[in-house]
Amino acid sequence: MSELASSPWSTGKKLLAVVAAAGVAALTVTPSSATAQESDQQNRIKISITQVTPEPVTSTQPDTVQVTGTLANVGDRRVSNAQIRLERGDRLDENGLRTALSKPQTGVKFSEFQPAAPSLAPGQQVNFTIAVTLHAVSNNSLEVDQPGVYPLMVNVNGVPDFGGTAKIGEATTLLPVLSVPGGGEQQKPQTPAKTTVLWPLADRPHLVTADTAGNAVLADDDLADSLAPTGRLTNLLAAYEQAPPGLTQAICLAIDPDLVATLQSMSAGYRVQTPAGLVAGKGQSYAHAWLDRLKGDVPGRCVFALPGADADLNALARAGATSLVQYALVNNELKTALGVAPLSGMTWPIDGQLDPKTLAAFTDNSKKTLDTSLLSGAKVSSVLLSAATVPGTDPVQLGDKGPRVIRVDDLVTSALAAGPTAALSALQLHAGSSLPIVIAPPHVWTASPADAATLLNGVQTLADQLYLAPTALAALASGPTPTSKVAPGYGEQATELSPTAAGNVAQANTHAWDLYNSMDQEPASTVTPDQVMAPTFDALLRAGSGAWRGNDAAAALALAAPDAMLRDLQSQVGIMEPKSPITLASQDSPLLVTVYNRLQVRVKVGVKLQPLNGITAAPSYQWIPAGLPRDLQINANVARSGRFTVVVSLATTSGATELGSPARIDLTSTAFGTVNLIITGLAAFVLFALSGRRIYRRIAAARKRRTEPPAETDAEVTEPMHTPVPEKLTAGVPGDERSNDR
């Protein structure tokens, strides 16, 4: 028996039996009764759910749930006989909802399969609509008999080429049920939760050069598509305009001031950078129309400013760009451009998180820098933060000096990423919350008209059913005085603006702020340092935008514009090199150099002479008025005479930022320097000493002769007198002492 069992013939019969059984099973499976094969086949069809009706479900509506969307073949094989059904999971609590948002759920009740598409080629897409009974008991019902939140799955089966029937696609959404026909309803809270909806209008930065005279330059023309009749920003604005009247005061527009500035520039005419050069932009009329609509929508409505260019405040603060963080909070642009006063002191950082260093930028430097005219609107009194980062109960304040915290509902925010139905489900679970509920989409939010309408209409339904109470954001910001003080929690984001990108922006900001601090308004001019420097700071905000998270190349490209602006400003102040040498007639003769200031404000500069042997000058600080070149006097000390070259440079008063280019100046000094005076003095002293010694010796010798008796001498021998012989006649005569030995 063992030999028979192990024989090739026996093994072959077993394999054939297994294959035959599998084949029979495959042939007898029908889509309505088969369970899908768990394989890589289930990812061949991408399911996009566009709408679930009704949202939320109430007993006053028909006993039917309908799901619409699209099926797209994203695989490499044709799929035949695609069929679709709905599946329902068990009722969820808050933890179950969080889990359902992150991974697929298991169905406990299934509808019947319905035909979706006879054939789908790779890359092909079709629309689908499926409707099933919600409450009644039947083969095509989800049998929902209690209110609550349920996971709702869309399952697609089909036959890929070279394969059998399999699950080829799956998508999960949520189904909020407030009440069911013939059944109960969710218990209403004694006090409906106060609810506010934030409606962000923002985009990534596009502006390179701002101008309202038709000379603006944009990095690309993508914003024109977003402003077109079916574009993203147009859809958001249209949904806001069509919001239910009951939410009029509960919706607050969160607008990026940089977006408004960009639209103003586009409205006047603009050009776009391309590899082939600058070309005319196509969005002038779109920008003009959209901005006009916004101006007409905001009177009497809630508006507040996002950080300028949606700057990544936390990354910039940790990089040391404190003044730029403060500048991002100035919201004067909205008041000027839209003619409406936004909520003062309100800000909303990306992700609703606040680093302690960012909080310090809000508070610790208030007396030092926030009182400057450039930052006069930067004080923060209320900040919208993720509830997960702020412990305690309302009302709460950050630290001793910090702003009031308005918590953003994290569950609703994370659910919103899965669509409006998921967000409404989260709202339903939090309807009995004692804390206000702030619905906060992403700053750059992509929502279809249907999704935006579904969210707002669903909030209105929950309000009509007394589960929510629409509340103005201003009311949340002006409640009771906070008695609880906490430190903000902060979790570093993997996609945050990188330290390299933020550090480069911070370095440029240091020089820009340094230059700003060296400026002052001319008495007879209306131009202020703020007006001169604001374009550079605006460009720095665009370079520090959260849009460049995870993209250092794009951040570096955005930084090129403010870098160029800053270099241009620095070049407007400098020294003109003289065409001929400058003569210094004395040791302390002033050195006169010609300086220029082409800016419209005066600038205080530090003048520095490069150290050189023989000439020194202590650093001096002088104001250079705007206008024509003029002479600047440098108090120098010359220690030697001669001709030499000195290098003179200008910088801001801190010395950290150079202005213009260093100038090389040829000098000619005819003055006796210190060394010459010392040498001359020493020589005079030696000469005086030698002369004194000689006089002393003569006097001593004379005294000696007077005291000594005369010596006795022999008869005087007189040498014969000779007539002097001229040198020329005796030269070379042997024996003569003047002979030339050459």
Topology record:
Elements: H1 2-5, H2 8-28, E1 45-53, E2 64-73, E3 79-88, H3 94-102, E4 109-110, E5 114-120, E6 125-133, E7 148-160, E8 166-177, E9 193-201, E10 207-209, E11 216-218, H4 222-227, H5 232-241, E12 251-255, H6 257-267, E13 270-274, E14 277-280, H7 284-297, E15 302-305, H8 313-318, H9 322-328, H10 332-338, E16 346-347, H11 356-363, E17 382-386, E18 396-398, E19 404-408, H12 410-416, H13 420-429, E20 437-439, H14 449-464, E21 468-470, H15 473-477, E22 484-486, H16 499-517, E23 519-520, H17 529-543, H18 552-571, E24 573-576, E25 582-584, E26 591-597, E27 602-609, E28 615-616, E29 620-624, E30 627-634, E31 637-638, E32 642-652, E33 658-669, H19 674-707, H20 727-730
Parallel strand pairs: 9-12, 9-20, 9-21, 11-13, 12-15, 16-17, 17-19, 18-22, 25-33
Antiparallel strand pairs: 1-2, 2-6, 3-4, 3-5, 3-7, 7-8, 10-11, 13-14, 23-27, 24-26, 26-30, 27-29, 27-32, 28-31, 32-33
Describe the structure.
The protein is an alpha/beta fold and 742 residues long. Among the domains are: 45-177, Immunoglobulins (Immunoglobulin-like, Sandwich), CATH 2.60.40; 193-209 and 244-259 and 300-480, 7-stranded beta/alpha barrel (Alpha-Beta Barrel), CATH 3.20.110; 499-572; 574-669, Immunoglobulin-like, CATH 2.60.40. The chain has 20 helices and 33 strands. Strands 23, 25, 27, 29, 32 and 33 form a 6-stranded mixed β-sheet that branches. Strands 3, 4, 5, 7 and 8 form a 5-stranded antiparallel β-sheet that branches. Strands 9, 12, 15, 20 and 21 form a 5-stranded parallel β-sheet that branches. Helix 13 (420-429) runs parallel beside helix 14 (449-464), helix 16 (499-517) packs parallel to helix 18 and helix 17 (529-543) runs antiparallel to helix 18 (552-571). The longest helix has 34 residues, at 674-707. The chain starts with a helix and ends in a 12-residue tail after the last helix.
